[in-house]
Amino acid sequence: MGIIRWLLNAGPTVFLPMLLFVFGLFLRIKVGKAFKAALMVGIGFTGLNLVIELLTDNLGPAAQSMVRNFGLTLSSIDVGWPAASAISYGTTLGSLAIPIGVALNVILLVIGLTKTLNVDLWNYWHIAFTGSLVYAATNNFALGLATMIVHAMWIYFLADLAAPTIQKHYGLEGISFPQGASAPGFVIALPINWVLDRIPGIKNIHWTPETIQKRLGVFGDSAVMGLIIGLIIGSLAQYDITKILNLGITTSAVLILMPRMVALLMEGLSPISEAANQLVQKKFPGRDLYIGMDSALAVGQEAVLSASLILVPLSLLIAVILPGNTVLPFGDLATIPFMIAVMAAVFGGNVFRIVIGGIIDIAISLWIASWIAPLLTIAAKSAHFSMNGASSISVLSDGGAWTTLLIVGLGKLLSWGGITVAGMIVLALMIWLNKFHTKRI
User: Fold this and answer.
1) Spatial distance between the Cα atoms of 313 and 326, rounded to a whole number of angstroms
2) What's residue 363's pLDDT?
3) Which one is predicted more confidently, 146 or 435?
4) In this structure, are residues 333 and 312 in contact, taking their beta carbons and an 8 Å threshold?
């Protein structure tokens, strides 16, 4: 447990390069090459985190200012993923998520029920989240552990299912996204894309950063678009002119810098991914291996960021007019790029479709997050999380994922029977995908 806590405190920029260096040596990559690859991953992740922090530190307060300025009040406050992860890892149950996730990943890889080797250890908090909610609902520790196992299986399945689409769209060869807040979006995007393909007129609308720039000239350039969207959000936040301009420059900088940081990270990952696949092909002919990474690798695409910035004010509007919603979007407004990153790959980077899909996804997420709020509030209190005066809390990203509704809902309603049903469904899907399915989506 001490090692696990040290890894969590060190963060991905430290333990991810260390893990990949050891993995590189295991793959028989030369020491110097493995060290350089791991170092580049660390540099890339550091740069990526800096750019993401630049976005969240500026966009988050602007979004929260909009909430206050519009006088929005709903019974549950969205505390955001940082608070949710702290709550999830703040219990004895949650602290077991990493060893459970790693052990399960190794077993599934050996028996051929997943292609994803998940090195994104920090994001096992997503399974700790659902485990803690089921424990809060049932007061059954063993059932909470079973929930984490089943949720991890769902994440590996969705990561494998979406990987070919993600690799093709983002150019991330050999990469998958086993992240609890992003992977479920793949299933939501598929039917939306199918419907939009069959609506006359709508099916022909195709807005990409390239087509927008071609039509609008300099105003369609990604840097200029980032500036304009940032200025609009700053104005809605009722900032003074200096803060509006600062926000505009920041969003513009994020749109330009993010892809460059991803390129650095991929420079380090490529030799490790290639060596891993060569080993798998040698030992298990015909099988692929994906390196499971944070979906932060995808949020830097211009289409994702542009659509996300448009969705920030729209999320507040949706929350106000959506019947049955009790959650006020707040902490996770700056996390919207992660929520739609996998969806964007299904939509082929079409900004119009990403926004439409994002609106639908946020509406669904608000409903689920409203239902989950009482359980999360109980879990937060058991983890001694400071509520800062709030009587009810929720989280838009993980709290609003359909996988959370499925797993926690079945666990709360049917206890062991419900978790068993969720587990049997995903086991059948994993067998279908890895043993019988040959056509890639």
Assistant:
1) 17
2) 96
3) 146
4) yes
Do residues 115 and 163 touch, judged by C-beta distance below 8 A? Answer: yes
Percent of residues, the chain, with pLDDT higher than 90: 42
- The full DSSP string for 200-247 is TTGGG----HHHHHHHHGGGGSHHHHHHHHHHHHHHHTT--HHHHHHH
The closest alpha carbon to 172, from 160, 181, 180, 163, belongs to 163
What are the tens digits of pLDDT across the range 35-60? 998 898 888 878 877 887 887 788 77
**Calpha distance 100→126 (Å, rounded):** 12
H-helix or E-strand containing 403?
Answer: helix 402-414
* Selection from 415, 286, 320, 305 nearest residue 351 by Cα: 305
Distance between alpha carbon 390 and the CA centroid of its chain, in Å? 26
User: Terminal CA-to-CA distance of the chain, rounded, Å?
Assistant: 40
- DSSP-assigned states of every residue in 273-309: HHHHHHHHHHHSTT---EEE--THHHHTSHHHHHHHH
Backbone φ, ψ for residue 181 (5° rounding): -90, -20
Q: Determine the length of the chain.
A: 441
**247 in Cβ contact with 234 (< 8 Å):** yes
- Using alpha carbons, select from 355, 428, 364, 347 the residue that is nearest to residue 402: 364
Would you say 359 and 318 are in contact if contact means Cβ atoms under 8 Å apart? yes
**Taking the CA of residue 269 as centre, how many other CA atoms within 13 Å lie in the half-sphere pointing to its CB?**
24
Share of the chain above pLDDT 70, in %: 93
pLDDT at 246: 92
Q: What is the pLDDT of residues 218-249, one digit of tens each?
A: 666 778 878 888 898 899 888 999 999 999 99
Is residue 74 helix, strand or coil? coil
Phi, psi of 328 (to 5 degrees): -95, 110
Mean pLDDT of the chain: 87
Pair 78, 369: CB distance under 8 Å: yes
Sign, CA torsion 117/119/123/124: positive
pLDDT for residue 438 is more than 60:
no
